[in-house]
Specification:
Length: 374
């Protein structure tokens, strides 16, 4: 007999059992534990689990928060919704229960290694049912499944069968790295991009330092983080200092922070997760006044590509922003879908209309191109 339980801490589930459901994942039990311990303001964590006897057979992360419906809206659309929200406070804000995580790009539901693929759809349906029961118990009407990969047909079909609406979400940018050298990578790019990168890299640049501990420079890192956050229309969460230090401590050699120095001034940092197959770019913070002069973003990009080449890492996962630039840099894009449903039928019908306006690809041509490419 299968039993379903929702927990408020990942510690309620054994590390080995959880990781067995997500083999090879960099964002595994240790990452989730670090996120939970970081105390990210405005979020409460939920962990959905299915057991057969005492054995964990399926699991997913979830969270609750107060959600701005225009989180993925940019440019003119964002200015309009901000004016609307000032005129009618709370209009764009709803209490949300979401399967997924605010600090991972895709929603994955894991099943234990002994579970047959044919069993997965039924288990996902049970996880969705558990989430709806948990949300109802918490008094939350809006339920979502955040960033389901277009490769995960089981999730998509389960959401549709449960009556969830769908809309495009931010696609994930990925750079396959089959190159034998940085020169080979540059040779794969368009002529103008290749020429521009070579010119940028010829000029003097910052000193690069790879770190597994950043406590001594944490104030500078948070200064750069806050400056970068202030420029972003798409940031969903505000990460506290404990996120950056906790990730590095909890994940050991699977997490590093790359620091960029001009003399004794820290001008950029890049938090990355690493294993033998992937490098995940979690956050890049930089000093805007110096970014153009020293091409900090492109230098960080080339440092990461070079690291992948030297260490035989075949995939660089590089985030959900800057799509126009990443097209030039040779990325491909993995489409993601947001599924949602409100228990109140009237609100659910209103959201069918609202989603036509708040689709992220409606306001960003480069983003629309990245979504349609897939």
């Amino acid at each position: 007999m299968i039993t379903a339980q929702a927990f408020s801490s990942i510690q309620a589930i054994k590390r080995e059992a959880w990781n067995d459901c997500f083999p090879g994942s960099l964002e595994d039990w240790d990452y989730i534990m670090a996120v939970e311990n970081a105390g990210i303001e405005g979020f409460e964590w939920r962990y959905l689990a299915l057991f057969k006897g005492s054995d964990l057979i399926a699991a997913a992360t979830a969270f609750t928060t107060s959600y701005r419906l225009d989180t993925t809206v940019q440019g003119i659309g964002k200015r309009f919704t901000e004016k609307l929200n000032r005129a009618v406070p709370g209009l764009m804000q709803l209490h949300l229960y979401a399967i997924g995580s605010p600090v991972t790009e895709q929603c994955t539901a894991g099943t234990a290694s002994h579970i047959q693929p044919a069993q997965r759809p039924a288990l996902l349906a049970q996880l969705l049912s558990l989430a709806q029961q948990d949300a109802s118990r918490l008094g939350i009407g809006l339920i979502a499944v955040k960033d389901v990969s277009s490769n995960d047909d089981d999730w998509s079909q389960s959401c549709k069968a449960a009556g969830f609406q769908s809309m495009p979400s931010l696609p994930s940018a990925m750079l396959p790295v089959p190159f034998g050298s940085v020169d080979c990578y540059l040779g794969s790019l368009g002529k103008s991009t290749r020429k521009d990168l070579r010119r940028k890299l010829r000029s003097p640049g910052p000193r690069v330092e790879w770190r597994s501990a950043i406590d001594d420079v944490l104030p500078d890192i948070m200064r750069l983080y806050e400056a970068s956050l202030a420029r972003s229309d798409l940031q969903f969460e505000r990460l506290p200092p404990a996120y950056f230090t906790g990730i590095l401590r909890q994940l050991g050699d699977r997490a590093l922070c790359v620091l960029y120095w001009l003399d004794d001034q820290l001008v950029a940092f890049n938090l990355v997760l690493i294993n033998e197959h992937r490098l995940i770019d979690k956050f890049f913070g930089h000093d805007l006044e110096l970014t153009r002069e020293y091409s900090l973003y492109f230098r960080s990009w080339m440092v990461n590509v070079d690291y992948c080449i030297r260490n035989g890492i075949e995939l660089y996962e590089c985030g959900q922003a800057g799509y126009a630039c990443k097209v030039r840099l040779g990325c491909s894009f993995q489409s993601n879908t947001l599924f949602f449903r409100h228990r109140n039928r009237l609100i659910n019908n209103v959201l069918k209309l609202v989603k036509l306006f708040i689709r992220p690809d409606r306001h960003d041509p480069a983003l629309a191109a990245a979504i349609s490419e897939h």
